[in-house]
Specification:
heterodimer, A: 477 residues, alpha/beta, TIM Barrel, Rossmann fold, Immunoglobulin-like, 3 domains, 7-stranded mixed β-sheet, 28 strands, 28% helix, globular, B: 350 residues, alpha+beta, T-fold, 9-stranded antiparallel β-sheet, 3-stranded antiparallel β-sheet, 9 helices, 14 strands, 20% strand
């Protein structure tokens, strides 16, 4: 995580250029990590991207997989790249670079060097810090094995990968976020039996909704079972196919958000981001060094978790002057806005009026990210709330905007696995809604209600995932 | 139901010693969770017949789902929603479950002189909208909502009818419904031959049946907003519930809290958490909300009338108040904060 603690050395001009030249389509894929020598046909699995960890004898796996119709990726450390290059492999789609934790701070430099050294090879950087997406109960291990009751409000806890993907999009815009996670193996039976089909479905659905690339790890028993045509293994896999067949589409979609989280590292902003995601508050991540008038254009709120220098403080102040709301979190001043008298001094905050907007300085780190997230929603002008969901305590909604057509796509993921009737309100007036989901296919027509430039509709049965496409005008067929 | 698994890793949760863990590891617990009533229900049980235990847990979850269909405020076709639409000056026949929940709710309303009130929904909605930043609560709106609140306007007509003698009264059983569902789930487990289990409704209400292997009871660590007191309770055939007011806003002036005091019409100002031990989950659920609203002063008097109960109030700065009428809540605070076990204030009362 050192990279995330210190992004000072990132070369922004280089990345901005890369982004302009290589800006990837905002859609993702499921890549299957495979360790067995044999592999079933890609067509049968419903997956076309296979990731093989590099070993000197990987060539036979690669050959076998190529014959079965896969696009191949090799997962390797930077030190292994010369071997892969020397092995003279038939074209592989990309090398997924595994950076050792000790070298994470230098990952961008390492990647840049590899790209320069091996221009014929394509490299992708893997973020291994994903979480198994899941809804959690409140029974947890604590001191001397006591059950702890952690949640007086009884609301379910959701582990999602929204913060990770938003961070990757902010800090590595040249690449579609690529992440993986380890399955929760906190109990023996789960270790023994591996994840259930619902666990895989949710992981796939979440990655699709995030428009991110996920390397899905399969336990070796399942891999062997699939190769051996084991009935149970294929019964499990067939349950996943509808989710694999509902990938995010290759449209010109960009995540919609009007809040910017400004940070230099993942850890300091992680919990607030996680809770904002949980409360369906869409946000972008902006690296502090990238803060500029253009990067904050279109936003209505900035949350600063890193101290701006004088120049960036001016950008921040100008943003507020133009009507934005800025919240600084435990940052040492002085800042330009603090020269004016405070408009409100509370126990933990000092507020300043700045032009048409305001700055709120929070004096302490965020001890209660749940309250912070709810405060962020309260601070938003109601006209600027992009998304509201009801009956959706276990649902995360992720809105996207098609810049060419003005359409909005709302991806919904339900982490409980129980069918829910979710009500949604989306900013904007949309007269036609088509609903698609893995369980029922495409497409169900939903009738919206439009009120005050907001569109309201109901998703009647949200099982695991759904995608609502909201069009400005009804489509004719 | 999401999964049904034997969680040997849960063993350390239940057994504090290596010896116990060794014994229990021969009989791993079965754990399962399900989302219902806006929360995650979890059941842990020990049973040598794993298949029977899993089937019993499934049945218990089905019962919780069924009760959600009865008591839900969100489902337009729930029995409660229908009652809320139709019972104004028109007696409505309801199921035994809904009748019992309302009946027990009214008992706690009387016990608490109206602090616990299932008709507080209109005020809750009003303040919730403000909390979401949707609209500020105006005195007019508050007064209008208050006119709709009052448990005395709910009339039970035995054996199975309910009438609202108010034009705008609406019931929300959120303060007692999960507890009732937990008790019914426990009944189902017992009827299926399961006698040692823990039922957890999202961490706010936990009911313990029997004991884990080789233990005197199920050890539960309770909510402590101060992080200094470490309250614990060992439960056997009893329940504990915790209520805590939503913390004040950090950034905005609009704040409040999700627990509304029917007496003053606004969010309760009592901060901190209160945990209540009682013989049933219905009782502990209702009492925890009530005791948060009334505070330790009146709360101790109330507990003194209810045998087999205990309560602990913990403020965010670590101040502790406790009362016991038979049940025991332990704390591990510094000596000056330690709580006398089996607090005797109510020991001579019934």
């Amino acid at each position: 995580m050192e990279l995330r603690r210190n992004q000072k050395h990132m070369r922004w001009p280089f990345y901005i250029l890369c982004w302009l030249m290589l800006a990837p389509a905002a859609w993702g894929r499921i890549l299957l990590r495979w360790t067995q020598t044999d592999v079933p046909p890609a067509k049968a699995l419903g997956v076309t991207h296979l990731v093989v960890p590099w070993k000197p004898d990987s060539t036979s796996i690669l050959e076998s997989a190529r014959r079965q119709g896969f696009q191949l990726y090799v997962q390797a450390s930077p030190d292994q790249v010369p071997q892969i290059n020397a092995a003279g492999q038939k074209p592989i789609t990309a090398i997924v670079v595994d950076i050792a934790p000790a070298q994470v701070a230098q990952s961008s430099d390492i990647l840049e060097k590899l790209r320069a050294q091996y221009p014929a090879l394509k490299f992708l950087l893997l973020d291994p810090n994903g979480k198994q997406p899941e809804m959690k109960g409140t029974m947890v291990v604590k001191r001397d094995g006591v059950l702890e009751i952690t949640s007086p409000t009884a609301q379910p806890w959701i582990d999602s990968n929204v913060p990770l993907v938003r961070f990757e999009q902010g800090f590595r815009p040249e690449q579609v976020p690529l992440y993986t996670f380890a399955w929760d193996s906190s109990n023996d039976l789960q270790q023994q039996q591996g994840p259930a089909s619902e666990d895989y479905s949710l992981a796939i659905a979440e990655a699709n909704a995030l428009h991110a690339d996920l390397i899905l790890t399969l336990p070796e028993e399942i891999q062997r079972g699939l190769v051996a045509n084991n009935t149970a293994a294929w019964a499990l896999w067939k349950k996943l196919i509808p989710y694999l067949e509902t990938p995010s589409k290759s449209e010109n979609l960009q995540p919609s958000a009007n809040i910017g989280v400004v940070t230099t590292d993942y850890d300091s902003a992680y919990e607030p981001m996680n809770l904002m995601a949980r409360h369906n508050i869409p946000f972008h991540v902006l690296p502090l060094a990238k803060l500029s008038a253009s990067s904050v254009a279109g936003l209505s709120m900035l949350l600063l978790f890193a101290t701006p220098n004088a120049q960036l403080a001016t950008v921040t102040s100008d943003f507020a002057s133009a009507g934005g709301t800025v919240v600084t979190v435990a940052l040492p001043g002085p800042f330009p806005w603090q020269r004016a008298p405070a408009t409100r001094i509370a126990e933990h905050t000092t507020s300043y009026a700045v032009g048409k907007g305001r700055v709120i300085d929070l004096s302490e780190p965020i001890a209660d990210p749940e309250t912070f997230a709810q405060d962020v929603r309260r601070l938003m002008d109601q006209d600027h709330v992009l998304l509201s969901l009801w009956n959706a305590l276990t649902t995360i909604g992720i809105p996207y905007r098609d810049s060419r057509t003005g359409a909005t796509v709302l991806e919904l993921v339900n982490y409980s696995g129980e069918s829910l009737r979710v009500q949604a309100r989306v900013k904007g007036s949309f007269h036609a809604i088509r609903l698609e989901n893995p369980e029922r296919g495409c497409c169900q027509v939903i009738h919206p209600a439009i009120r005050d430039d907001f569109t309201e509709f109901v998703v009647p049965q949200l099982q695991v995932a759904a995608r609502a496409r909201l069009e400005k005008t009804p489509q004719t067929h | 139901m999401r999964c049904s698994r034997h969680l040997t890793a849960l063993l350390p949760l239940i057994c504090a010693t290596q010896v116990c863990a060794q014994i229990a590891s021969n009989q791993p617990p079965i754990h399962s969770q399900k989302y219902a009533m806006g929360t995650v229900f979890e059941i842990v049980t020990y049973d040598r017949a794993n298949r029977r235990a899993s089937a019993a847990i499934n049945e218990a979850f089905h019962e919780i789902e069924r009760l959600d269909d009865v008591m839900s405020n969100y489902k337009p076709q729930s029995e409660l929603s229908r009652l809320n639409r139709n019972a104004h000056f028109h007696p409505q026949a309801v199921s035994r479950d809904l009748y019992r929940v309302i009946e027990q709710s009214l008992e706690y309303s009387r016990l608490s002189a109206g602090e616990f009130d299932i008709s507080v929904g209109p005020l809750v909605d009003l303040w919730k909208a403000q909390q979401r930043g949707e609209q500020a609560v105006t005195p007019d709106a508050e007064n209008k909502a208050r006119e709709c609140v009052g448990f005395k306007s709910i009339h039970l007509l035995p054996p199975n009818q309910v009438e609202f003698r108010s034009p705008c009264l609406r019931i929300d059983v959120g303060g007692i419904g999960k507890g009732y569902a937990v008790d019914r789930a426990a009944d189902i487990l017992r009827s299926q031959g399961i006698h040692n289990a823990l039922i957890n409704a999202g961490g706010s209400t936990v009911y313990a049946m029997g004991t884990p292997p080789e233990k005197a009871g199920w050890t539960i660590e309770l909510r402590d907003p101060s992080g200094t007191v470490r309250p614990q309770v060992v439960l056997k055939d009893s329940s504990v519930s915790t209520s805590e007011q939503t913390p004040p806003a950090l950034l905005s002036e609009r704040s409040g809290g999700h627990i509304i005091d029917p007496q003053n019409g606004g969010p309760s100002k009592n901060s901190g958490a209160v945990s209540v031990v009682a013989g049933t989950a219905t009782a502990s659920d209702a009492l925890s909300t009530t005791l948060l609203l009334v505070g330790p002063g009146r709360g101790k008097a109330l507990i003194s009338t209810l045998r087999g109960t205990a309560a602990v109030w913990i403020s965010p700065d670590g101040r502790v108040d406790t009362v016991s009428n038979g049940a025991v809540i332990r704390t591990w605070a510094a000596p000056d904060r330690s709580i006398p076990l089996a607090y005797s204030e109510a020991s001579s009362k019934k």
